Amino acid sequence: MEKEKKFVRETRCFKISRVFPTDVNSHNTLFGGNLMSQIDDIASTTASKLCRVTAVTASTDSVDFLLPIRTTDSVSLESFVSWTGNRSMEVFVKVIREDLRTGERRIAATSFLTFVGIGDDDKPIFVPQVVPETEEEKKLFETAPQRKELRKIRREESKKFADYLVTKYPWE
Q1: What pLDDT, on the 0 to 100 scale, is given for residue 1?
Q2: Strands, E, within the chain: which ranges?
Q3: Could you tell me which residue ranges the HotDog ACOT-type domain spans (predicted)?
Q4: Is the pLDDT of residue 3 over 90?
């Protein structure tokens, strides 16, 4: 049986918001935790659009902050499923800052996250395969196996590292 296929464009999501003084840190730039929350939010919507079930974050592979985002900017998040395995999917999020005074747009951050679709039985489901069309989509699709291998190595290292960590509280 052939695996179901969907075009990457069918998973694409957008979110644009203004940066207000309550959104910034002591450097007067968008608080990183705020942006990370927005990234996970839009990525989960993207993942669910692919598999049409609840999708859960398996890992946040990276969030690379490239440029500060200020209160004179808007922040635009664009996300799409960039690659799929059997039961997991890689979601790419591109963050664009736009200076609302000049209209200049620049990439402010990028992020890769891994999601798993969860069926009604609370078990991971098989996910449709994505088909890239644009040059950007094709580049991300072609380079995904390298990121998957790095993810696998990092996960194994994290498991080994966790064996050395203690769970006892300092006051016990």
Answers
A1: 66
A2: 5-7, 13-18, 54-65, 73-84, 88-99, 105-118, 129-131
A3: 9-121
A4: no
- The neighbouring-strand residues paired with 83 are 90
Tell me the two tokens of residue 127. 């996910």
2-6, 23-27, 33-37, 157-161: least confidently modelled range = 2-6
Domains identified in the chain and CATH numbers: 5-162 (3.10.129.10)
DSSP letter for each residue of 24-35: B-TTSBB-HHHH
Q: Is the dihedral of CA 135, 141, 145, 148 positive or negative?
A: positive
User: Looking at this protein, which amino acid is placed at residue 8?
Assistant: V
Residue-wise pLDDT for 44-67, tens only, equals: 999 999 999 999 999 999 999 999
d(CA 65, CA 68): 7
Question: Residues in the chain, how many?
Answer: 172
Inter-residue contact 92 to 47 (CB < 8 Å): no
The answer to whether 59 and 89 are in contact (CB under 8 A) is no
Q: Please say whether the dihedral angle defined by the alpha carbons of residues 44, 36, 30 and 11, taken in this order, is positive or negative.
A: negative
Question: Two tokens at 159?
Answer: 């498991």
